[in-house]
Amino acid sequence: MAARDLRGEVAAYIPELARVDPRQFGMAVVLADGREFATGDADVPFSIQSISKVFMLALALGKLGDTLWNRVGREPSGQAFNSILQLESERGRPRNPFINAGAIVTTDAVLDGSTPREALGSLLRFIREAAEDDRIHINEAVARSERATGHLNYALAHFMHAHGNLRHDPDLSLGTYFHQCAVEMTCRQLARSGRFLMNAPGAPRLVSAVRVRRINALMLTCGHYDASGDFAYRVGLPGKSGVGGGILAIAPGRASIAAWSPGLSRQGNSLLGTEAIEMLARQTGWSIFG
Ligand code: GLN
Prior knowledge:
alpha+beta, single chain, about 290 residues, five-stranded antiparallel β-sheet, about 45% helix, 12 helices, three-stranded antiparallel β-sheet, binds glutamine, Beta-lactamase
């Protein structure tokens, strides 16, 4: 990684993301009653990257139900998002669906009986419906850039294939995974797309209330990789980050929050984005801990 800035480093390991101006910051909040607030670069599209893992998990649970958990766990990994370390001793079963290995398995599960195009179509439909916005799209240049430099992800996929935990050709599963990571949204669109995780009366109901709680539990415990504990401590809300610099956080029953700033911490989480959501939570008193 390079491009050091006072506000952190952009994800230079994906060349298309390395070109993003790190001095941007945006934030959007949608309340349970439908009111919306936005500030800064809230209408600039960015690559949602690993935030897509939340939507893919929702799709996978809808398609497979709890059988998904035979192939992926529900424990924080305490390791970097792209680490292969635990896969060896845990025989190819990733710790959770929000680290890369777990997300690749989740995507592979959604691919059962569908082509990558169909699986990505379902994902985009889900996100567009959640946000009530048909403009949300995949940035092909970012997907290509990820494929060209995705050696660690290839290593994870082949390793899991060797253990029988990847059912499709790694090229197909990864092709789908790289494209889901390349979904682009603005803060405003992302905050709207997160409303289904709020369990609020007016929000689109795409997933049952019980499942929403479970997805939120995973976001809280695993959504920021080896900094998930720190995010829970500082912010007190379920959240999911991506190396594009975006964060989606949920105040259950109250608000869906999106923040974006490309400069990342060592663990790959937006530095300013985290700071901003922490300040918002402090000032509003929003916390799942009462
Ligand atoms: N597409 C990125 C990768 O696979 C996603 C990682 C992230 O956002 N943490 O490396």
